[in-house]
Amino acid sequence: MENLRVREEFEGLSHAVQNAPSVYDALRILEVAYGIDSSTYHLALTVADVVDTPYVRTTYRDAWVARYLVRGYAKVDPILREGLIRQLPFDWREVEVPSAAHDFLHDAQEHGVGANGYSIPIVDKKRRALLSLNSRKPASEWSKMVQEYHQEWLDLAFLIHRKAVFELHGEHDPIPQLGPREKECLHWAALGKTNDEIAEILGLSMHTTQRYLMSARHKLGAASTTSATALAIQLRLINPYGSTQDSGS
């Protein structure tokens, strides 16, 4: 009976997060439910080692957010940097803090940011997202919370991520799901290779190469291979200036 009650409570919380009017409201709902002090959601686009975070929602105090932006702290924030390259959730205490970030962390705590936190990376197509939860609770109490709720937080992180994508794009997510071979073919097409040359490079038949390029064009809604490669670069699905591994990942 206890497990059923807990599951029903979490389902109610999930429903509330899904139906929140905005990502910011969803963060607030999560905070109230778990007694968390602050939270931040980043949505990034990545190609190779280039990171762009065009969408951020946070419940930190306005004064700290303004200071963070003015001082360019995103360049030295070790949690953000780790979160956008890691695959698995992590406690902030696991992160090795470089000397360049010591002043930043001291400044953060001076402005009310808690010493404890937990971050959940989300990998979605060429996007990376990061949900970070921050607490001023004692370390021992925070550790118990992480142990008890980390799986629930992971589930909620994906709900918030889907809400963020919808908040940005509505029903029409502009980033289609291209297969590895489709991206490889577009990569070489973007570098000016002919279909014959692409087929030889990838060890494919001409027919198969043409089929992959046609499929990619259809998914991107492009009338030609040239426009498909241009759109794929714009959406950061391929990086013709990097390796094929960058484009195919």
UniProtKB/TrEMBL annotation:
PROSITE patterns linked: HTH_LUXR_2
Question: Its GO biological process terms?
Answer: regulation of DNA-templated transcription
Q: Which GO terms describe its molecular function?
A: DNA binding
One short Pfam name that applies is Autoind_bind
InterPro entries xref list: Sig_transdc_resp-reg_C-effctor, TF_LuxR_autoind-bd_dom, TF_LuxR_autoind-bd_dom_sf, Tscrpt_reg_LuxR_C, WH-like_DNA-bd_sf
Source organism's superkingdom? Bacteria
Domain HTH luxR-type: residue ranges: 171-236
- Provide this UniProt record's keywords sorted from A to Z: DNA-binding, Plasmid, Transcription, Transcription regulation
Checking SMART domains in the record gives: HTH_LUXR
User: What is this protein called in UniProt?
Assistant: LuxR family transcriptional regulator
